[in-house]
Design a protein that fits this description.
Chain lengths: 385, 363
């Protein structure tokens, strides 16, 4: 897709090559410090979150056996929604990033993990772990920028179809897992000839398998367990739980890169990028969401999107711990530390989607260098490791 | 992908029931939910729990492990790989089973000598780990007595090398089938001998077992040359030896010099012992990089490739862990321990195989 030239100066351009190198070394040191200290407490954390998900899932399915009664329907649906969120965000996303591979446990490993979502692990690991995390916010390379169907950056040329984006935006939110799964197929790569028809067929089959297993479980097997009087209620409960999970995942993920604060990059800007340059691009291209410790666990610690993008394979429970060090680097090098509360971040994303449905648009004003005195006080992490 | 424990053998009925349950638990397995009740109920990999810890000597401990499912059996003398979760990380090591398969309590025992700078052996020797779960790999190893056992046996053991032999002795004793057995066992002092009390007691009882103890701190190490004195008829016996690598190498040379190598069976905890069959050697091609290496018939492919600057994966370097495996695409290789050959189309371990003519490996 042809892109217009930069409309806003990126902080990356202000740094000297020496400074970028130094930043690279500082981030590497943070990485090593955490990885050298991983141990029993970290292992206990992920095992307890995994156990919590399974207990909640069991509990909700048991409650929904009585879904014909309103209160049971409400309670069961909520608990199932929470369980599904935990499973996707703090567990599935992070395990498949390889954050827990250091444990050497085949049951909690990126090579073996499968999640309750429409994307197959293989397709998702390619399009998310590889394409998105490597080419983050590089226009024309990061296919997560607008998910190929939205105009989310003013550099993207306008087309009348974008007039409809405020509507299909809502659809995408409701059926986010399916949107992501189709997106993972990367039809663009097929058009460019980088992907064979056989490969696509294989991936479609994988997706079909995942779809069938979800339908069988949530819309046939469990509703049947609830008996004739409860079939329809359990079905709607499960459907609603999937909707809750999809809306939540959509909200957290859209707030990760599309708030006003985030920068995008041209391909020229990122040519011959060094390790330090990679870190700075991740820092500029991601945005955090502030919230309570429980919020962070429910968000899969993607409230620390900045830290996650700098170190995608670091156990998520450690992001809270390194956040002050990242901010310190931002302060010393005059870099922004993109962050805001959920309401604010979500609001700016939705405003952009509305505005860019129409022609034109400018990049939003950026906050400038991080200053600790402006920053809100962060809560203590739920589980300090 | 990290190493897994051995899969549990299930009846078709149970396997079928699990398949149905899986429709409800997908993409997780029913196992994942059973684990909430009892983690030992894993059918994906065999788990065991350390249910008793018994101090053998100052620096060695026997742990009694209850497997999650009825033990599938092993032959005395065999070993298995065991995964230990230590400080959040899983570590795999090989241990000989010091128990035979017919224990009435269905427990397995491992007897582990503490290596102070080690990772796993100090952990096993720490009584606080009673109750911990461990992952049990598949049973392996050729260091076993044939069926029926030979009429005349010589065991040569030193230090913790007694563990696989203890399993054999228990099995022979359990069936009252102790034939004519001479056991030469070395330990540093009388007190620090693992299973010292057990073998002394066996020696006292009327049976075909005769124990020759060697205290190395006062009498010096046992050498193969001492065999004529310690067990004059050793040439007529099938000999099973387990102990330090140097002892096993010396025994191998000694038996070979006498032309009796087929009467010697060894198990090493440290390195592999060269068998008599050497390959022809040949050119090794590593197809991933196109690297070519010349390897003679007595050198493992791994060693030759490393000497030529290639970086290949490895773990134990003695044919135990399978970290070093690669697909043999063309040619034939020979296992330096046993002399057995493997043809193209199979996964081979580069640490114990050398080429028999030109070979290509997918590595
Ligand atoms: C067939 C067999 C049977 C054995 N039976 C017994 C027995 O009955 N009793 C007994 O006490 N010992 C036995 N051993 C030795 C045992 O496997 C361990 O080597 C020993 O207990 C020391 O382990 P450690 O972790 O304390 O020492 P470490 O020094 O930590 O490890 C010892 C060896 O394990 C390997 N190793 C270490 N770290 C890693 C790693 N990260 N990845 C892969 N490999 C690694 C290396 O080869 C190292 O030399 C046996 C070994 C073999 C091969
Ligand atoms: S390195 Fe362990 S089997 Fe070869």
């Amino acid at each position: 897709m042809p892109m217009k030239e930069p409309m806003i100066e990126s902080p990356l351009a202000r740094l000297t090559p020496e400074q970028i190198e130094e930043i690279g070394r500082e981030f590497d040191a943070i990485h090593d410090e955490v990885f050298n200290s991983l141990g029993e407490r970290d292992a206990r954390y992920i095992r307890s979150i995994i156990a919590l998900h399974r207990q909640l899932a069991l509990l909700s399915r048991a409650i929904l056996l009585g879904s014909r009664y309103k209160p049971a329907w409400l309670l069961g649906t909520s608990v199932l929604g929470i369980a599904k969120i935990l499973e996707n965000m703090e567990i599935g996303h992070n395990v498949m990033h390889g954050q827990w591979d250091w444990m050497n446990d085949p049951k909690i490993n990126s090579a073996n993990w499968d999640w309750d979502s429409a994307s197959t692990p293989e397709a998702w690991k390619h399009s998310h772990n590889y394409v998105h995390h490597t080419f983050t916010n590089i226009r024309g390379k990061d296919i997560d920028l607008g998910y190929e169907i939205m105009r989310i950056d003013p550099h993207q040329p306008w087309h009348p179809v974008y007039l409809a984006q405020p509507f299909y935006n809502v659809l995408l939110a409701a059926f986010f897992e399916w949107g992501v799964a189709f997106h993972d197929l990367d039809l663009e790569a097929l058009k460019k000839g980088e992907k064979s028809k056989e490969q696509l067929l294989k991936e479609l089959k994988g997706m079909g398998g995942k779809a069938w297993r979800q339908i069988l479980k949530d819309y046939i097997a469990f509703p049947l367990l609830s008996g004739p009087g409860g079939f329809k209620q359990t079905l709607t409960a499960n459907f609603t739980a999937n909707l809750i999970r999809n809306f939540w995942a959509y909200a957290i993920i859209f707030c990760g890169h599309f708030p006003d604060q985030c920068y995008t990059f041209s391909q020229e800007e990122t040519e011959n990028e060094t390790r330090g340059g990679f870190y700075v691009r991740q820092l500029l291209g991601a945005a955090n969401i502030e919230g309570s410790p429980v919020f962070h666990v429910m968000a899969g610690n993607l409230g620390y999107q900045v830290e996650h993008h700098i170190f995608p394979d670091m156990p998520s429970s450690r992001y809270a711990q390194i956040a002050p060090k990242v901010k310190d680097i931002c302060e010393r090098y005059g870099l922004p530390y993109n962050s805001g509360r959920l309401g604010k971040q979500f609001g700016t994303v939705q405003r952009t989607i509305l505005r860019l449905a129409f022609p034109g648009g400018e990049p939003r004003p950026k906050p400038g260098a991080y200053r600790p005195e402006d920053a809100p006080v962060q809560g203590r992490p739920l589980i300090a490791v | 992908m990290p190493e897994s424990g051995a899969p549990v053998k299930m009846s078709p009925l149970v396997a079928g029931a699990l398949k149905v349950l899986e429709k409800f638990t997908s993409p997780l397995s029913p196992d994942d939910y059973f684990a909430l009740i009892n983690p030992l109920w894993s059918t994906r990999e065999t788990l065991g729990r350390i249910d008793r810890v018994h101090r053998e000597t100052d620096d060695s401990t026997t742990v009694y492990i209850t497997p999650g499912f009825r033990w599938g059996g092993h032959r005395p003398g065999q070993y298995l790989r065991v995964g230990f979760d230590i400080d959040g990380k899983r570590h795999w090591r090989a241990y000989s089973l010091s128990s035979d398969q017919d224990r009435p309590d269905h427990k397995l025992t491992l007897t582990v000598k503490r290596k102070d700078d080690g990772v796993v052996s100090p952990w096993v020797n720490d009584p606080r780990n009673l109750g911990s779960l461990v992952v049990l790999g598949a049973v392996e190893g050729e260091f076993v007595l044939p069926e029926p056992p030979p009429g005349k046996i010589l065991f040569v053991t030193a230090g913790s090398g007694i563990t696989p032999v203890m399993a054999m002795l228990q099995a022979l004793d359990r069936t009252d089938a102790l034939p004519d057995v001479v056991h030469v066992h070395s330990s540093r002092t009388g007190d620090d001998s693992i299973f010292g009390a057990e073998i002394d007691a066996l020696h006292e009882r009327p049976n075909g077992y005769r124990l020759v103890r060697r205290i190395t701190s006062t009498e010096g190490r046992a050498e193969p040359a001492h065999l004529d004195e310690l067990c004059p008829d050793w040439r007529e016996r099938q000999t099973y030896a387990c102990g330090p690598g140097a002892l096993l190498d010396a025994l191998t040379d000694h038996f070979r010099a006498e032309g009796l190598e087929d009467r010697l069976h060894v198990e090493s905890f440290e390195h592999f012992v060269m068998g008599s069959g050497t390959g022809e050697g040949g050119e090794v091609t590593l197809s991933a990089t196109g690297t070519q290496v010349t390897c003679d018939g007595t050198t493992p492919i791994l060693v030759a490739a490393e000497a030529a600057g290639a970086e290949l994966p490895f773990g134990c370097r003695m044919g135990i862990c399978h970290t070093c495996t690669g697909l043999l695409e063309h040619g034939t290789v020979r296992d330096l321990r046993t002399g057995e050959t493997t043809q193209a189309g199979k996964e081979i371990r580069t640490c114990v195989n050398s080429p028999d003519g030109p070979v290509t490996l997918k590595l």
